[in-house]
Specification:
Layout lengths: L11 E6 L2 H13 L4 E5 L1 H6 L6 E5 L4 H12 L5 H6 L9
Antiparallel strand pairs: 1-3, 2-3
Length: 95
C-alpha cells in the first residue's frame, strides 16, 4: 500500500509554510479526517531566489474546500492549555 494520495486531477495547494514540521502537522490533521494529501518541497526555488521556498500541503481538487475548512478550524481552535493539563489530558500540539 502506498502513502501517496489517490490523484483525481492536478493536486491543489491548501497550505504552505517555511517549516516542514508545520506542514507535517497539517498533513496529519487532514489524514485524521480521511483527506489524502502530500507534501511538496519548494527548495528548488531557493537556488534562484534565496530566501524563497518552503513546503506545501496539496490535496485532490475535490477535497480542497473541505481541507481548507479543517485547517481553518484547527488554526482558530481556542484550546485552554492549562485547563487540559489540570484535567490530566494531553496538550494538543499546534505547531
Amino acid at each position: 500500500m502506498s502513502d501517496e494520495p489517490k490523484i483525481d486531477g492536478e493536486l491543489v495547494s491548501v497550505f504552505d509554510t517555511e517549516q516542514e514540521s508545520e506542514a507535517m502537522v497539517v498533513q496529519g490533521l487532514l489524514t485524521s479526517v480521511g483527506i489524502d494529501s502530500t507534501i511538496s518541497s519548494l527548495d528548488a526555488v531557493q537556488n534562484i531566489y534565496p530566501g524563497v521556498g518552503g513546503v506545501q500541503v496539496r490535496v485532490n481538487p475535490a477535497q480542497v474546500e473541505q481541507a481548507r475548512q479543517i485547517i481553518a478550524e484547527y488554526a482558530t481552535a481556542d484550546v485552554d492549555v492549562e485547563e487540559v493539563q489540570e484535567e490530566g489530558g494531553e496538550t494538543p500540539s499546534k505547531s
